Fold this protein.
Amino acid sequence: MNTRVALPEPMRQWLDYLAAQRRYAHHTISAYERDLKQLVELAEGTELRDIAERHIRQFLGKLHGQGHQPRSLARTLSAWRGFYAWWAPKTGLPLNPAQDVKPPKASRSLPKALSVDQTQALLDNSALTASREPLTLRDRAMFELFYSSGLRLSELVSLDVSYHKLPDYESSSWLDLAQQEVQVLGKGNKRRTVPVGQQATLAIESWLSVRNQFVKPSGSSLDRFALFVGERGRRIHPRVIQQRLADLALAAGLPTRVHPHVLRHSFASHVLQSAQDLRAVQEMLGHASISTTQVYTKLDFQHLASVYDAAHPRAGRKSSDKP
């Protein structure tokens, strides 16, 4: 794809709408921008209003032939469909050309999750627990909160220390420490309340005792009210969180690189293992559809199967056994 492709003004307006009104995460907006640029490039000068369903099918076929995977094509098609769903009514187009087009089916892989023991090894590692260094206290609070509440990376970054409303600023997501919960504005501008566990609460309290060392009273509201900040007092950047977690996983001796989303998956699978309440997990994760949450039941079955293999005297189900 030619990254220098210029987006038509309607597409630029749609992305601005998603960012300002729907509060989509920055990485989502960037991905949609790339998808829209692909559409412009594939259309080769065809006006947006003249693109028909047959064109959309041809474009998807071409991308598939270039090696794009079904999951990538599904996201690309979703961006195209979303743009036309927003733009068509504004311009009197009779229909959305991407509405009835379906991407190739992808095999649904299980999300990566740590075992309970691996999670404990991560969060109880001395690199995180033995130091009272302020940034380590911050890291511990962040990672305990990820695992405690199953937050997305963008949701954790957006948290304020408490609710604030000023003429030029209003909190979108915030911590309510007294109630041991967070109010989160997630995907699709949907708000939810998620409990915060005891270990996460204690870790957050320790971080709050030193947080003011970094917060600058003269800083912007976006930074001054942020729950988690960096060394310069700015709201913490997602990449900092990703790198600090990866370093911690390495120090803990985990066999895989740990991304913040892995802690979200671990939260979901571990809660299901204990409570077996799919609807409750759906609500806490902020999934629009329960089918998205149901993938964790497969993780739960894997856990139960491993317990059966280890405990049942006549299980005999070893991967190396031959029939």
